[in-house]
Design a protein that fits this description.
By secondary structure, this protein is α/β, with parallel strands linked by helices. 43% of the residues lie in helices and 21% in strands.
Length: 126
């Protein structure tokens, strides 16, 4: 039987959120389970994705300055369809989330405030 933790250590997860504290929290919580990359906005996330071919999961907030998480996930869907795409939001922006899910841009939607186990099950699982 495979050791799940060792398998997860080969996965690179990109967390994207404009709240610095959230990124620090996610990095601390998941860096022992998987390789963590961080982006404070869509532009930073795109730079990471263009630099690294190892990203297997993108977890992004929806509402950020500049561009929305769904715009990032649309790019990922079109350019790296193998990447698992997860959208989070605290806002009642369910119409864009539903539209993004229906177009196949989002694998999973997690509503804020989320718990660590919810994000873990959504992002660092085999």
């Amino acid at each position: 039987m495979k050791d799940i933790k060792s398998d997860l250590s080969n996965i690179e997860v990109l967390f994207v959120d404009d709240e610095e504290q959230t990124l620090k929290y996610l990095s601390r919580a998941f860096s022992s389970m998987c390789r963590v990359r961080l982006g404070a906005n869509v532009d930073e996330a795109l730079a990471v994705l263009k630099e690294s071919r190892d990203v297997g999961v993108v977890v992004t907030d929806q509402v950020m300055p500049g561009a929305r998480g769904t715009e990032l996930l649309r790019w990922v869907s079109e350019n790296r369809p193998h990447i698992v795409r997860i959208l989070t939001t605290a806002y009642a922006d369910l119409n864009s989330a539903i539209e993004s899910i229906n177009r196949g841009e989002v694998f999973r939607f997690v509503e804020k405030p989320w718990t660590l186990p919810e994000i873990g099950r959504a992002s660092c699982r085999e």
